[in-house]
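Lecture notes, unit on protein representations.

Consider one protein chain, 432 amino acids long.
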Amino acid sequence: MNYQQYTQNQKISQITEDTLVVGIDVGKNKHAARAFNYRGIEFNEVLYFDNNDYGFKSLRKWFLNIAGIHGKKEVIIGLEPTGHYWLPLHEFLDGNGFKVVTVNPHHVKKSKELDDNNPTKCDKKDAKVIAKLLPEGRYSEPNIPVEIYAEIRVAYNHRERIIKDLNRVKNSIIRWLDIYFPEFQKVYKNWESKSALLILKNTPFPHEVVENTSEEIVDIWRDNGIKRGVGSKKANKLKSVAKNTIGVTTGHEMAREQIKHLLIQYELLIKQKDEIEEKIIEIMKEIPGAMEMVTIKGIGEMTVAGFIAECGELFDYQHPKQIIKLAGLNLQEHSSGKYKGETRITKRGRSRLRALLFRVSLPLVRHNKEFNQLHKYYTTRSKNPLKKKQSLIAICCKLIRVLYALGTKEVEYDGEKMLNDIKRPKDYQQVA
């Protein structure tokens, strides 16, 4: 992977008199490109090209022709990463050996009025704004995962979509129960158990439960290999609540079809989820340091997979601070003169990575002894104690550092070493 981190001065110095600067505004079906020198003087008219092979080749021919006419030896191309539409164009240009960088959409939005003091937005204008940001060093090199890292990102994204669909189906089943058999969940706190699903498949309505004897209900479970936790006592309890149901008694014919289809979808999505998670674990075994990260108590394989899917190859980062910034967990300050505002996280970065880390911080603090001690220290220290949520954010940042160390050094988690590496005042041990 040709991904590198540069300071802004290094970014600026990469664009010289011999560099042709191309800005491209990306759309779904058509893109717009404009070409400039390093001082912002434009060459030629704007080029509109289609999002296909012919359009990409016409773009390459266009800027190579401009570079030849004006004696430019290098070409740098800036894109605004609009949704997913920029990925094929990036792969084409990068595969042909051209330097492709991305600009932050927030920067484009903030700087588009500098030239004409006009909030107008159009493809032609945006392409110019993107190009003007490059000589100022306001760009970044996209960290596009390749090989095994591309595989795990695609697999994890697919798992996320499956879980989203699964949650939708689960909510629909709960809604169905609330309408037609609200008492069902008094007997089954977990409607996803095997015995509960069998009842929903065979006798989903209260009147059907009442019509069957306890022995017939028990036979449904026994015939499907369920012998533990079910019996006449469970069947009688189910019949008892069914007799006094407040469930809706109309529309049962189509309601039966509805629950049938929902249960089919539910079982299919569960199967797909299990299959993709097995494949993710197999992929993780090939990634250096991945299985070492799982040795942290309170961290599971899917959490580590999500972390790698969002970050890519950890060796591409010189310091874990870069991942903290990628997650939008770096701090911002609002102060002016005597006024000093509250310090907050920027939330500028990968929201899914930030959400993943925050979600895992809760069980991590609960089940991991060392992170629990760290959380207690952050919230009870004598100087600058943190609120609980602030402490969890600090835990997220610490977790990034730990995962980075385990992944790059390929060593297993050592809780005592983690605590010993933290610089803290003398009162830490008393609080912990």
